[in-house]
Write a structure and sequence with these properties.
- By secondary structure, the protein is mostly helical.
- The chain has 2 domains: 66 residues, Winged helix-like DNA-binding domain superfamily/Winged helix DNA-binding domain (Arc Repressor Mutant, subunit A, Orthogonal Bundle); 145 residues, GntR ligand-binding domain-like (Four Helix Bundle (Hemerythrin (Met), subunit A), Up-down Bundle).
- 66% of the residues lie in helices and 3% in strands.
- A two-stranded antiparallel ribbon has the order 1-2.
- It is globular, with a radius of gyration of 17 Å.
């Protein structure tokens, strides 16, 4: 592969997050086969080379496995259902309490991202933000929103914080969201999260830890207030 076709680090990072979010967002069980590469390329909006790098990364993590001639399959708990104690938590946690947990953890992650993010990580955050803004359905938006928040966690360059975020996110996906009612097929152009995401990304890009922490705190609080009427 030459320099003209080799995926940039930020593009690979973003593709891994988007692919991971896609797997988690759908009801895949261990052993289920993922869509063909040509469908994943279209749904994720990435090149074949970038997709294959992302698949390589998830295979190394143990999230998927590949069989030549048969396809790519979900392994372990990659369907997003927490295991063990996390599964028990997800069964007893309400969406409001989940949002309060996010309010405690994600602003601190955004702060660390502003301190430690590489330029490639910032590009990945911006790309995920753009994909969330252009999503054509709520399901697609939620997958890209998930990818954006994980890209911010990855930008901390702290494997412990990333692991903490992943565990929080596994529980978040599994918590019952029956109270959430969507009145449109896709986020409207004026969806408040778009501007909130931009403030978070801008603060991280400006290397302003306090502003990044505050922007994330306000974003999580705003989402909670819009969904449940509380913060």
């Amino acid at each position: 592969m030459d320099a003209l076709t080799r995926p940039a680090p930020a593009e690979r990072l973003d593709a891994v997050s988007a692919l991971r979010a896609l797997i988690a967002d759908r009801p895949y069980a261990p052993g289920d086969r993922l869509p063909p590469e040509r469908e994943l390329i279209v749904s994720l909006g990435i090149s074949r080379a970038t997709l294959r790098k992302a698949l390589d990364a998830l295979e190394r993590e143990g999230a998927i496995w590949r069989h030549v001639g048969k396809g790519t399959f979900v392994a372990g708990h990659a369907n997003g259902r927490p295991a063990g104690g996390l599964d028990m938590l997800s069964r007893s946690l309400t969406p409001v309490r989940m949002m309060r947990a996010r309010l405690c953890i994600e602003p601190a992650i955004a702060r660390e991202a502003a301190i430690n993010a590489s330029q490639a990580a910032i590009v990945g955050i911006r790309r995920a933000q753009d994909r969330a803004r252009t999503a054509l359905s709520w399901r697609a938006y939620e997958a890209q929103d998930d990818a954006l928040h994980r890209a911010i966690a990855e930008a901390t360059d702290n494997i412990l914080l990333l692991s903490l975020f992943d565990q929080l996110n596994q529980v978040r996906r599994a918590v019952a969201w029956d109270a959430v009612i969507r009145v449109s097929d896709r986020p409207p152009a004026e969806h408040p999260s778009f501007a909130e995401h931009d403030r978070i990304a801008a603060a991280i890009e400006a290397r302003d830890p306090a502003a990044a922490q505050d922007a994330m705190r306000r974003h999580i609080g705003s989402v909670s207030a819009r969904l449940f009427g509380e913060v």
